[in-house]
Amino acid sequence: MPGTLSREAALGGFLRAHRERLAPAEVGLPPGRRRRTPGLRREEVAQLAGLSATWVTWLEQGRPVSLSAGALASLAAALRLSRAERAYLFELAGRRDPQLAGEEAAPPAVLASVQSIVGPAYVLDRQWNALAWNEAAADLFVGWLDGACGADGAGTERNLLRAMFLSAPLQALVEDWPHRAARLVAEFRAHSIRYAGEAPTRALVEGLLRDSAAFRADWLSQDVEERQGGRRGFRHPRRGLLHFEQLTLLPAAAPGLMLVMLLPA
Questions:
Q1: pLDDT tens sequence across 53-103
Q2: Same-domain check for residues 19 and 65
């Protein structure tokens, strides 16, 4: 946020601006005769959101008011916020949007994008299940995305973490596997913190803690790392030693997903 503007002040300014730009007719209210300010009144927003008018006033004034995620969702609905505006509201308030608790729909364009990439490329969801991959990725990732793992998910583990710790062919493929596996766990811890309370994330971690002693040791180390690019080495059973530069992108339309590309080193 610019300058020394506090998070509370930024939140108050955001709410006030969106209240003032919303016409009464847009929410089914009569225009009224004596409106001294543009847009809705604070009392009207409070009524639409099912909140106290005092709380709405304090929020706009930048006071340190703590609202639940449900109350913020009601405010977002009352103010007719767009998807981006709603996400911004929750970020300012430091709350997790309850709308994101379920599985995030993967935009078809993101899934199809891997087919236009020459090198190995794949898309991961928030639990790091592979949703889509191209032929180059299937050829490279023996024991994960190769022919043993069909498009329906049958066969080899489609989840990257489970394959990394439970697939012997993938472990043999990855150069310096112990270091890369530990780094992957640290990256997943950082990436998944927003989804740690979701059942699929809990089930994934609990299952690996049960099934893999190596994962358990890496997870209990509490290491946290950003998912960064860099050189990746593979000892391919047919093509020998291969090196790539990894690039990870977060699609704006679905920030919970990751598009991973391996470029020639």
A1: 898 898 888 888 877 888 888 998 988 888 778 878 888 887 777 766 554
A2: yes
